[in-house]
Amino acid sequence: xxxxxxxxxxxxxxxxxxxxxxxxxxxxxxxxxxxxxxxxxxxxxxxxxxxxxxxxxxxxxxxxxxxxxxxxxxxxxxxxxxxxxxxxxxxxxxxxxxxxxxxxxxxxxxxxxxxxxxxxxxxxxxxxxxxxxxxxxxxxxxxxxxxxxxxxxxxxxxxxxxxxxxxxxxxxxxxxxxxxxxxxxxxxxxxxxxxxxxxxxxxxxxxxxxxxxxxxxxxxxxxxxxxxxxxxxxxxxxxxxxxxxxxxxxxxxxxxxxxxxxxxxxxxxxxxxxxxxxxxxxxxxxxxxxxxxxxxxxxxxxxxxxxxxxxxxxxxxxxxxxxxxxxxxxxxxxxxxxxxxxxxxxxxxxxxxxxxxxxxxxxxxxxxxxxxxxxxxxxxxxxxxxxxxxxxxxxxxxxxxxxxxxxxxxxxxxxxxxxxxxxxxxxxxxxxxxxxxxxxxxxxxxxxxxxxxxxxxxxxxxxxxxxxxxxxxxxxxxxxxxxxxxxxxxxxxxxxxxxxxxxxxxxxxxxxxxxxxxxxxxxxxxxxxxxxxxxxxxxxxxxxxxxxxxxxxxxxxxxxxxxxxxxxxxxxxxxxxxxxxxxxxxxxxxxxxxxxxxxxxxxxxxxxxxxxxxxxxxxxxxxxxxxxxxxxxxxxxxxxxxxxxxxxxxxxxxxxxxxxxxxxxxxxxxxxxxxx
Length: 676
Description:
The protein is an alpha/beta fold. Mean pLDDT is 80; it is low at 373-383 and 548-560. Residues 564-675 form the Response regulatory domain.
């Protein structure tokens, strides 16, 4: 039925309980209804959406049915509104003269004698509804046909297509006004088949006539381009397309459309001229390029030099991003070694050989600290050392560094299934690539978010440009700002960066892209603005057994004089050795393993003369701890211990610093410089 609501039945039965009873019975079969109070309101409620009408005999017997008859007469052609008349017992249509009059006025009438069974009533109502639904379907078909005709007329007009129909056996030609206009006729003028043939260019008459004859004989499509000579002598180009149809009397006719293609033909001619001119220019340009070829074997050499410099810059970018985290962790390691050696040296007084050995160990650790400054130079000379490696193990080894690189506000999720095969890869370069991807994801989430790292085996069929074989796919996805299509297309180009000046060289992704290709893999990026970015690093599965991972050593830190000192570091090994150094200097030391624990001690009223805190700690770093501690105790001296050469932007506090790794003497000097 049309509309969003179901069609309703109209009930006119003012006397007794007939109306309410009929409405209730209709409701039981799911048919909504409207009860009308009188004939005027009943006629007013009639409409195309009415399902059927139910009236009692006594209502219409002596009523003025002129308005109702007019409404019935005014129905559209598809409509024959069903009426159900409830007659009295023994008053069926065969014994009721009034029934003939009602049938003549109302047309589609069903008489139902009272009393009746509910089942009989429901059957009559459903029958009337089914008939009405078929009428609604007919209306929809008529409306669809009308819309189709209108759409066809609109399409023909919009496309400047002239419609025509030709009966070849008689030469009868029916044309639309637009078709006649294409042949230079006025709208009111006719166009016979003989006039159509006479209006063709003499060179095209035989070909067009033969094409029409072949289409009629073989029942094939008729298609032809031809010139039309207008009555004023001017020439136009036209194109006709038609198909054959067989009429009820068995005759074949052609039904088709014709369009004016004069402008297209002129454009094609112009295009040919332009093509010829272009070919001439191409030939000329080719000669110029060949003559300039000698100036190119120097340009090639320059490009090779540039590519070499690019490779070096890629290594610098990757190592530069890694240096901060590596230096911090390596300095923590040296911190534990140096502080314990420093303490141990006080217990071997008089043993020259032991003192010499300890001094040599201290010098070696100090040289290790200098090694962090040479990491970049070392990496510049390093070539790829490809071997079977356990990628899951490499990711696990990098997890702590990755978490330190992310800072607060970013959640890191890592999914590493067991039993994956080894990949053919350079371990350190893979670590750098992973760090680059994570740092890029971090920078794309200035307001925080989530980074997900996963590893899975994939087939080359999912990456058609890769060689056949098995691959491991590292996936790094973020919930950041994402990239538009233009930015994504340039993301792996060298020196392209969306970061502000000084924040990045634009070599990170190009380095990973080059590494993947060098290893026989690929880098895939997908992104949408506001929906984050997904990076996939494809690496070939190795045929050998994975190399054993080298376990990373632990990390460490230090402070020391006769003061009450609160020492804060989340690394237990560093805290233990540093507290030993301070107590050996005679200080009273309280140890805290987190910024929150330290704040709790300060808020609890602990008597503290000096706060010494590590900078890099989870959830709250040393800089934030210093700010909150001074908010509680403005005069409290704070000494910041850090393994970073430079603090991250926004954490450059005006605080005295103690560089890691340090020994007891450096710790004592730093405290002394505070004037305590």
